[in-house]
Amino acid sequence: MAKIAYILLCHKDPDAIIQQAERLTATGDFMSIHFDARANPEHFAAMKSALADNPNVTFAKKRIKCGWGEWSLVQATLYAVEAAVDAFPRATHFYMLSGDCMAIKSAEYAHEFLDSRDVDYVESFDYFESDWIKTGMKEERLIYRHFFNERTQKWRFYTSYNMQKKFNITREIPADLQIMIGSQWWCLRRRTIEWILDFTRNRPDVMRFFKTTWIPDETFFQTLVRHVVPENEIVTRTLTFLMFSDYGMPVTFYDDHYDLLLSQDFLFARKISPEAKDLKRRLGALYSAEDVDFAISNEGRSLYKFMSGRGREGRRFAPRFWEAESTLGRERELMIISCKKWHVAKRLLDQVRKHTNVPAIEYLFDESDTDLPDLGGIQATLEKRTRHRRALMRMLFDYYETDSLIICLDPSAMDLLKDFYSDRSTTKLLEIECDMTDEYLTGHAMRVGLAGEKTPPDTMASLLPTIRQDMAFEADAIRDAEFPYRYKMRQSNSVEKNAGLISQFLGLSFDASRDIASTDYLFVD
Questions:
Q1: How far is 236 from 180, CA to CA, in rounded Å?
Q2: Chain centre distance of CA 190
Q3: How far apart are CA 443 and CA 448, in angstroms?
Q4: Which residue of 30, 36, 39, 259 is most buried, as measured by CB atoms within 10 A?
Q5: How far is the C-alpha of 194 from the C-alpha of 93, rounded, in Å?
């Protein structure tokens, strides 16, 4: 009978991971976990302690910091796979999962399903001939070297790419490989996994190639499986049910999707909402159930397309998305940096990106040219962003596939602060108080149009106290609102004190927070 070793990459919510591990191993299956090295070390320690007595759970022997689109995701997967191969000699299949996945069939059904055919399940489409990539880079993912993270180091990513393109610095794809592409949610037999691990040790040239491709988790296993396994032993599909909206966002499943999920011809589903408590409870009980009959109708995608199509035609089948998505999500955490000197907040954000994997966005409600992904037009103007603020933020959480997000706001945006704090999500605020010299305030007055190059000195002298008073009023309004989880770092504070505040705000280690706080140019005008 099939025995499944689940390969789980995760970076958050240790309690949910513990429950998932205990649930999936209770029926005799196994799990190997890689917990992102960027994540809270206390969470990792709690998870290891809770699962220490479970012989069917192991951890990757090495943890690394992971970033979307990077080789690090593939490397973390390989570390977890190697640990599983060593720890679980009885495992016959290796199944890639995320923390947002849940079983939608029983273990009994899953084992029988895998026993019925001696094949590997992996989406594996020809990279150049298929239309798997709908928009954006295609050949450029492979022929250019990508050293930087596109989401957290956007300027470096595109500068490097444009320089290579300008000077025609390209490379050859390994001649004996047919590059394939597909979903990263695969289920492979033990023999296939062992062949892949042997391949990684014997072909350093291929490893070097993939380490600098962009989004290699969509191509690495998909290519290597096709290279080492006969075609008639590959089923080009994933066993994990997932859908995407017209905005390119993963569709999230809630409590009322139970029957729909069970009727799909898949073993797992992604993504399950953190708020879908009843759905999680019912699916959790289902995995260990016996003699369950599943009526497979597989109408999920067509039903979703039909229902969303009615909405696009203006036929009111359900609340509009900005009404239905009126909360960011109870399990989510929005971290807001508020600073009148925008360049100081942006510098702090740059340092935070170097020490965490949390997506961070600059003044998206203040600057129209803030770099944002295409979210179907809702991000197009400041007016739209502000009007549909919660829908925008929820879509950003979904786009970055995260439950933690950092943004910058001007201290004058009290309406936004109050709105976000009234949400069921957790909102945290880090105020940055800077020294305001007359020279800086003069420049500020010119930037916002209160003064010009020819403004008389007497007029400027009378204007500066008013600007100071206005800024003090904004700071007092934030203080009087008595927001919870509010931290205030000051330019006049010691590095140690500011590091402590950053550590509390980000949930980051004190050493990493001190590195951020000690940035020597942080407050320079």
A1: 11
A2: 29
A3: 9
A4: 30
A5: 11
Give CA–CA dist 441/375, Å, rounded: 36
- Taking each helix axis from N to C end, the angle separating 389-399 and 414-421, rounded to the nearest 10 degrees, works out to 60
Beta-bridge partner residues of 138: none
Per residue in 479-502, pLDDT (tens digit) is 999 999 999 999 999 999 999 999
> What's the distance, CA 16 to chain centroid?
17
By the 8 A CB rule, do 307 and 128 touch? Answer: no
Q: Measured in whole angstroms, how far is the alpha carbon of residue 174 from the centre of its chain?
A: 30
Reduce the secondary structure of 134-156 to three states and give it as a string: CCCCCCHHHHCCCCCCCCCCHHH
- Between CA 336 and CA 344, with CA 341 as vertex, the angle to 5 degrees is 75
Nearest to 6 by CA among 22, 36, 29: 29
Instruction: Give the span between the Cα atoms of 378 and 386, in whole angstroms.
Output: 10
Mean pLDDT to the nearest integer, 431-437 = 92
Q: By the 8 A CB rule, do 375 and 247 touch?
A: yes
Contacts of 5 (CB under 8 A, 6+ apart): 29, 30, 31, 32, 84, 88, 91, 93, 94, 95
Q: How far is the C-alpha of 509 from the C-alpha of 130, rounded, in Å?
A: 45
Helix (H, G, I), strand (E, B) or coil at 486: strand
Give the separation between CA 68 and CA 182, rounded to whole angstroms.
16
Residue 172 contacts by C-beta under 8 Å, 6 or more apart in sequence? none
What was the pLDDT predicted at 310? Answer: 40
The distance from CA 450 to its chain's CA centroid, rounded to whole angstroms, is: 41
What's the rounded Cα separation, in Å, for the pair 146 and 208?
12
Give the largest Cα separation in the chain, rounded. 88
Q: pTM for the whole thing?
A: 0.68
For residues 382 and 388, give the distance between their C-alpha atoms in angstroms, rounded to a whole number: 10
Q: What is the Cα gyration radius of the chain?
A: 25
- Could you write out the DSSP letters of every residue in 334-359? EEEEEESSHHHHHHHHHHHHHH----
Q: How far apart are CA 304 and CA 320, in angstroms?
A: 15
pLDDT digits over 37-89, tens only?
Answer: 988 899 999 999 999 999 999 999 999 999 989 999 999 999 999 999 999 99
Buried b (16+ CB within 10 A) or exposed e, 328-365: bbeebbbbbbbbbbeebbebbbbbbbebbbbbbbbbbb
pLDDT-above-90 percentage for the chain: 65
- CA 345/CA 410 separation, integer angstroms: 10
Residue 471 pLDDT greater than 90, yes or no? no
Q: With 60 as the cut, is the pLDDT of residue 415 above it?
A: yes
279-295 exposure pattern, b = at least 16 Cβ within 10 A, e = fewer: bbeebbebbeeeeeeee
